[in-house]
Each structure stands twice: as structure tokens, then as C-alpha cells.
Predict the 3D structure of the following.
Amino acid sequence: MCGIAAIYHQSSKDSDPLHTSAAGRSMLDGIRHRGPDDSDHWSIGRSAWLGHTRLSIVDLDGGRQPLGTPGGWALVCNGEIYNHADIRAELGEASFTTSSDSESALALLKRHGPSALDRLHGMWALCAADTDGRFVAARDRIGIKPLYWARQDGTVRFASELRAFPPDVQSAVEAFPPGCYWTPESGVVRFAVPVTRPAEPAEDWQHLAPEIAEKATHEVLVDSVRRHLMADVDVGVFLSGGLDSSLVAAIAAREYAKAGARLKTFAVGTATSPDLLAAREAAAFLGTEHHEAVFDAEQAAAVLEEVVASVESFDASLIRSAVPNWFLSELASRHVKAVLTGEGADELFAGYDYYHRAHADPTELDAELARTIGNLHGLNLQRCDRVTMAHGLEARVPFLDAKVIMHAMSLPPEMKGLEPDGMEKGHLRRAFTGWLPEHLLWRRKEQFGTGSGAQDVLTPPLGAPVSETELRAEAPEVELRSAEELAYYRAFRRALPYVRPEAVLTRFATA
């Protein structure tokens, strides 16, 4: 939910609150799409300025930000904190003035300092400041929610997106590292490692019947989806018809049915794409209120420039999947303010073919899963956040909940190997036997850009041959991989001409 911007002057003697406020409001204007419901900003003493643009999902009336007081600690936060009720119970209601989940982060900071942020479960990025000159910026352990920063001439700027930074600052912008906080005194401090294998798993899965591990996987995911439905507005599900989103939809549909309500699901594709057809069948089985966005080559080409600018990347696989997500988000935003997605399941349960082709050894597979989860913030999560928030829609990722990650990484990698017939994610499929039609539960994985039909409508017009020499000459600072990616790169440069692409580009390795 929302977009944030902040400015901190390392020397308050050189700061001008009026000038800082004007500069901050200009940054906030660049990300207004992230929070169409409300906006506010405060100057915090002479050193700091905090700005927030809001998408109202939790505590609709009292959750306006900045939270706190202009005369003390104040905070702006983008995201959702799912264990805020537990933190409230521990710290006591006297520490809170609103029902906003974000206030739990502020209460922890005030009571225990930034090292306590590792207790937050959810997706979030925040900036907080006090009138005495103290300042904290931090980001969740996976980097589900974006945060960028630029340090230049004694001034440090923060924002949810690259486009928020003024042109003369963009060359200094970098991604703020996930699982870290920064203060002027400490510099960058890591408070949480994105992914680790527990030193002592709760269970020795190797010596237990597989059904016990499958039951545990089932329970931890059901619990996560329940918590990710936390909202004071309707929450829907992006349903591709693949395993991961279909499982999320199946759980969410049952939760909605308990309340006597009907879940809204959303699917996208070209008219005859396999994802659209599979999602339609899954929705009928689950009894959801289903909506579809159908696009063609002409429509895809028409939005391509805007998609690249929004995603703030030119990686071909990322853009190819972002185009259908653009139409999907546009559709969903007309019905709900938040959606659940299946992001992260492939990285936790080894859903990609290359995992088994290039990292078949269990120890290697385990390490590669951890590496790719740690890099999701610059890949699928970047696309997921930007395309949805471009339409004022929040995307939530229950597979990347801290408890789900901890459980999945406690499983021996042998449980994540291929089935005898070459099918991936057999463990996860068996954990939800009966929750979907058998042929959908065991449907083989397709990349979203392929299953939705986006690859077919994008690659041919963009795929004219280009020599390696031409690719290197066009972008010597990065390694462009195809004519298609060259077209995306040129659109990226038009949108963000001063950003150093090598400072913000993450690649998805497939070998």
C-alpha cells in the first residue's frame, strides 16, 4: 500500500526546510499513482522531511501518514505488517494512537530501536525521523516492497520508485538493500538474512513419512493466506491457472466462503492462451466471481513504453511477463484494492526447469534456491509491485511470508526434486490433494509470459536479428541479450535517461 519519499540532511546547518519540503513534494508527485486516496508530508526538525501517498486498505479512517507527531518521532511506511496485532498486545495499547498496522513499526522503533525491526512479519519499507536529528530507513528481509536511495552532497534521499528522484540525482540512485536498516550513525546494518536453512529444523523430515511434511506445508500456507487477507476492503486473487496462484485462490475462496462471501479472481491472456482457459476452469471449480482481461498484439504494443517506464527495468523476461500483468492489474483495480499472487513458490519449491538441469545436486539446489529468493526483489517482485501499483493496486505474496520461507527451507532439497515423470513441485501438489481438479493440480508449469500469450505477441515484432557488436555498442555498461531486450532498453533510457542501469538491474540466471 502506498508510496513513500524522504529527505535527510546530514548537516542540519545547511538545510532549508522550505526548500526541502518543495523538493520532497516534487518527489512525491512522481509516485502519486501508488497512493491515489490521500497524501501528506511533514518536515521533522531541520534535518528531515517525510512524505506519503496512500492507498487505503487498513484503518481507512485513522491510518493517514506520516504517523506520529511532528514534534517527535514520525514514520512513513509502504506495505503491510501482518503480525501487528501481536506487537500491539506485547507493547500495550498505550503505545498506539491508531489501528494502522504500520504503527507497530513506529512503536518498536521508539521502544527498542531499529534492531527490533526483525520482528516485523510482512512486506514493508519505511523511513522514520525524530526532531532531534535521528533518522532510520529500512526494508523487509526479502525486499518485497521497494526502496531506493541516493547519497549526494550531504543529502540522502529515499523513495519507492526510481522515477521519484530528480534528474540531477538519478545517476546516484541505488536499490536499498533488503533486510537492512540505515542510520546516520551506524550506516547500513543487516538485521535479517533473506533466506537461511535452519540450523536445527523443527522436524527431521528425512526420517518421517512424506505425508507429515506435506501436512506441515499445507498448514503453513493456509495460515499465511489467511493472514494475507487482512484488510478493511475486499482482497482478490490473480489466477493464472497454474499451480501456485490456483492454490492461493483455493485457500482464499474457502476463507471468503466461511464469511458468506465470494472471492474475486482475475485472469489475463490472449484469446486462446492456455493460462486464460485453465484459470477459467479453476475459477468455476472454486466458485469465484471471475473476471478476465483479454489483449492482443496491437494492445500490447500500445502499452509497451508505459510498461517499461513503470517496471523500471529492461530485462526481457521481466517485461514480457509485465505486459499481461499490466492489463490484469488495470482490470483488478476496478474491483478491489489488493490482490494475492503466487510469487515465490517456484523459488521455494524448485519450480523452474533450470534448477534441476543445472543444480541437480541437493546441496547445490539448496544454495541456488536461497540465492534466487534473495534476488527476487530486483526481478519478479519488482515487476509485481510496479505494475500493480501503477494502477493503485496492492499485490501480496503469501508464499514469501517469513514462516512459509522458514518451513520451505527446512525441507530437505531431495523433497523438491522432479517426479519420475519429470513433473516439478510434487511435494507442494500432494500437500493440496483434492483442493483442485486433478489435471489442474498436476498441470505442468509454463512461464507466465508464455502461458498468457505475451511472448507470442511481443517477440516477433521485436525480434529482428541484431549482432553482438550492435548490442555491446548500444549499452556497454550492461549485457543486452537480444533485439527484443534492446527495444526495452531504449524505452528504459527514454523514461529514465540519467539512471545508471547497471546500478539497478538484476538478472535471472538460468544456468
